[in-house]
Amino acid sequence: MPQGRERYHAVFEMAPDPTFILEGHQFVECNRAAVTMLGYPDAASLLDAHPSELSPERQPDGECSREKAERMMDIADREGVHRFEWVHKRHDGSTFFTEVTLSVMRYDGRTVLLAVWRDISDRKAAETKLRDSERSLAEAQRIAHLGNWWLNAETGEVRWSDEIYRIFGREPGEFEPSYERFYAAVHPDDVAPVKKSEAAALAHGLPHSIDHRIVLPDGAIRWVHEEAIAS
């Protein structure tokens, strides 16, 4: 084996992430990390397999794994590199999330695909936990008619929770919230005291706590209590 190829194989074998070489959309080589992550007895058990054979029947978006794998590899063949998320299946049937990077490369005079997997199961679990937490918070706010908002005093950027929209008589996401839209909904007689309280909070770090009226789209008046902390 030529010295350059020996060095390549040493790097390939020692790579910490599962790494494969695909030819004809089948695995023809894989490293130790791939065997370990998938829980197979040896590399030979993984060779000549199509990527969909190491995947559940369908991906989380509902697409057939075999059809989607073909599409992902076609994109990589065409564009030279392609990165995407994928659910793979271990030898024991358990599944895990990966970020896959497919790259076109020359190997022994042939054009092949180099596939590198990065286990992102922890990240996906954290994202799911965050989404669940956000849903729980939104539901609690809906029940309590309590909303929250955030203002960047330097840029003027404003964010509203879904319940803030409902309090103002709007549908969540109906429009992009802004400082101007907020004050357009505040009762004209209450704009000055609300702005005064807000300015004191920003300038001196005082609590912003005030009861004021807002005008709903149908003209009805609603009293709200508003609190904020400058940071």
Uncertain runs: none
Specify the biggest β-sheet.
Answer: 5 strands, antiparallel
Q: Which structural class matches the secondary elements? A: alpha+beta
Shape: elongated
Percent helix, as a range, is 25-40%
Distance between the termini: 64 Å
Our count of helices gives 7
Q: Proportion of β residues?
A: 25-35%
Count of strand segments: 9
> Order of strands across the widest beta sheet?
2-1-5-4-3
SSE sequence, one letter per element:
HEEHHEEEHEEHHHEE
Mean of residue pLDDT? Answer: 86
Key phrases:
single chain, 231 residues, alpha+beta, five-stranded antiparallel β-sheet
Describe this entry's structure for a reader.
Helices cover 37% and strands 28% of the residues. It has 231 residues and is of the alpha+beta class. Strand 4 and strand 5 form a beta hairpin. It is elongated and about 80 Å long.
